[in-house]
Amino acid sequence: MANQVLLITSDASDAMSLKEVLSQAKDDAFDIEWVVRLSDGLERLRAGGIDAILVDLSLPDSQDITTFDKLYAIAPQTPIWILNTADSTMLAMEAVQRGAQGYLSYNHFSNDLVPQSLHNIIQRKAAEESLFLEKNRAEITLNSISDAVIGTDMSGNIDYMNIAAEGMTGWSREEALGHSISEVMHIVHGKTHDPVPNPVEWVLQRDEAMALTAGTILIRRDGSKAAIEDSAAPIHDVDGKIVGAVIVFHDISVSQAMITKMARLAQHDSLTNLPNRMLLDDRITQAIALAKRRGTQLALLFLDLDNFKCINDSLGHSVGDKLLQSVAQRLRACVRGTDTVSRLGGDEFVVLVAQDKHAHDAALIADKILATLAVSHSIDEHDLNVTTSIGISTYPADGQDAETLIKNADIAMYHAKDKGCNNYQFFKGALHISAQLSG
Predict the structure, then answer these.
(1) Distance between alpha carbon 361 and the CA centroid of its chain, in Å?
(2) Strand 52-56 to strand 80-84: parallel, antiparallel, or no bridges (unpaired)?
(3) CA 415, CA 427: separation in Å to the nearest integer?
(4) 383-397 pLDDT, tens digit each
C-alpha cells in the first residue's frame, strides 16, 4: 500500500522535481498530494490519512517557523521533512529542534536517495509510535493489576514502580526513584521479624529468578505490616545480558486471615466457639500419645444437660442457644489451661482432662462442674436452672483411642441419668454389657 505524502510548496519546479523522483520508488511506494498554501495543507491534514509531510516554510499564506508550528500542532505524530532553500538552513535546523524529522536541501531534490530516505523516515516514525503504544499499553496494564511491580537497575536502585507498589510500600514513584530496593521495600521474616535480604539482590548477583520466602512481612513506610508473596526475576537486554531486575508481589494478609478463620470454623462449634468433634478427636489422640510416653492417665467427661429440651421448647431456640453459650463459658472456667472443653452438638459437651494422674482428679472437676452449672443462668430476663449428668471414662483403663473413650464416657453418662441426673458416674465394664443388652 502506497504511503500518502502531502507536499506543501508554492514552487512548481520544486514540486515537479520531488514528484518525479518519488515516483521512481519501487512498487509505487508514494502517493503524492501537492498543495500550494498552508491553509490547504492544514485542511487536508484534518481529513487524516497522511503518512509524511514535505513542506517549504515560505508559503503565500505563512512564513518561517510559524509554518512548521502550525503543521506540528495539527499533526504532531506525522513525520515532517523541511524543504530547505539556500538561505533557510538556520530556519530548517530550528524546525528540527522543534520536532521535524529532518530537512532536504534544494540541490538534492532530484537525488535518487530521496525515496529511500523518506521511506526510512516514515518507517522510523511508525516504529516510534508502535513502541510508544506498546509502552503505554504496558504502563496501563501494570497500573491496572493489583500486584505490586518494582523494577531496579543493576545497582538495585529503583527505576520503576506501578500504582499498586506505591500503595503497598507507602512510597510514591517520584520519591522512590533512585532509592535502593531494600530501603523502599523493607522486608522481615514472618516469625522472627528479623530483617531479610531482598530477593532482588539475589537475582542481580546470580541472574536467576527467585521466589519470596513464605511468610515474608513487608514493613510499609508508615510502619504498618503486610504479609506478601511472589517472586523476583532478572531483566535482560537484546544480547541476553542482565541489566536489572523486577519483583512482583501482593498482599496476602486478607487471604491468610481468611484461611485461619476457615480453619478455625472447621474445628470449632459456631455457637459456643468451643472445639468441635474433629478437633476434640485430634487432642485426645495427642493426649493419649503423651500419656503413653509419660505413663500417666487422662479422663473424658461426657456431659448432657438435664431437661434442656423443656427450656428450648418453652422459651424458644434463641434462649436455648444463649443458655448453651452460658454453659460453655462456665465449663471453660472449671478446667485447667491444659484441658479441653468441646461441644459435640445439641446439649452434649465433652471435657478432656489431660495429664490426669488419679481418677480423683476427674472427680474433683466433675464436682466443680456440677456446682457451677447449678447456679441460675440469667438469660433474657429469665432465671434458668439447669443441671447436668456426667459420665467419665479414663485412659488406659476404659479405651485406647478417642472413639472408644467417648463411647464409654457416653455410656457412663446414661448411667448417671438413670441414677437421677445431676451426678457423675465412672464407666465400668458392666455398664457396657448392660448398654449392649438394653440396645
Answers:
(1) 51
(2) parallel
(3) 9
(4) 999 999 999 999 999
